[in-house]
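pls read this protein.

:::
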Amino acid sequence: MTNNFDPNPTNDMGGSYRKERQTKRVLADTVYARLRDAILSAELRPNRRLIEDELADWLNISRTPIRESLLRLEQEGLVERKRGWIVREHNLAEIKARLECRIAIEGYAARLAAARRSEADLQELRTLADMMENPSTSRLEFNRTNYRFHKIITEAAKNPTLANLHSQARLNYWDLSVPVIFSPEVDRKIIEAHRALIDALTTRDGDKAESIAREHIQLTMEIVLNALEMSSQVFSP
């Protein structure tokens, strides 16, 4: 009798099952990241209804990873269920909490980045600063470039946990239901702060880098909260 049993199969069912599970996990993570970025970038705005079939067609995938991603986003407080899924709009207290976290996170990230940054990091920061200073840069491009600028500094800190916290505290003021206006004078202060941050990172001055970063985010927080508080007073009964 021929024994066909192979004690060390190279293509057994168990291996195929593990490979399939890994493929599904990678797909689910990719879909989650895509939806999360769409929400945080205001591509999917607050109170936008999220229909699983439409999202599946949009991303050209099945509904299963969509459903899994929405459940993960619900745990993060980015979506909620109100007769179906919608993008969640944060209240004033939550927005203030996120901005306060950004002050702490980005301040310390700048301190670490001063010691750990690379020359490539500095070059990219200078390029982004030039883009923001260009008069032809649109408001949306200015905002997105600003976010990228701060993200590079956080990544230059070489601390994955800190980078993850920064991502969780991310807040785009332009996707709020209340318009937040940044005047040309404020834009000028933003650009000056970015240039000063680059100088501090270049000389590896951690104390200065942290101080500039904290004051910079503090300015943003004051403008955003003032706009939200003014709106609440206008619309209060």
User: Anything to note?
Assistant: Confidence is low (pLDDT under 50) at residues 233-237. The longest strand covers residues 79-81.
